Request: fold
Amino acid sequence: MTIPSPNIWHWPEWYEVENRAQDVDGAIFRHLRGAVDWTGGIVADVGCGSGFHLPVFAESAARVYGIEPHSPLLERARTRVGHLPNVRVIDGSAEGIPLGDASVDVVHARTAYFFGPGCGRGICEAMRVLRPGGALVVVDLDATAHPYGEWMRADLPQYNPATVEAFFAAQGFGLMRVETRWRFPDREALRGVLGIEFTKKTASKAFAQTPGVALDVRYRVHVRRKPAGLEML
Reply:
């Protein structure tokens, strides 16, 4: 079941501002390149949204597939990568990736659909399309970190970071925490992005607590590899 995104589905222009502000030092991709090598391989970016990360993968991958269920974002992504011959954006979801068995080297999902318990079907689908030795990479926000995680927990009191991390560990994922820096062009851009990520009360508090145009945000990177040999069930 596709869960509507509360931010990019409704405010794609503001989310584009957010994408450009996130991780301006490239810490996440630096970590990913060290953990998972997609050079010359095939990458599927599940829940690719407007396709912001597709060109980065396309720089060294032989083939990149953007998978997106929301039609308006699908068209935005196709427009973004229309000039890249090794990228194709297709309609699909985490639980229904329209690719063949054992056809992909890396499945990447960034703040897209994996929130711990209840995501088993998506993980199974990713394992289906991965080749032996391939990797599923799930990048999400670390709600234990100050200050962004505190704002998240204020709006999502039912969200338990420890439960999510325990779920991924039980599913065979490794975990790495990655510190990043977000930097906005001005205070109004910061205010606008906080406004699509949080409730009005929390966004107002977050804006007041953030001097200048930058903030530190920590991510979790979960990686699970598909066994290269016979897997015993």
Summary: The mean pLDDT is 92.
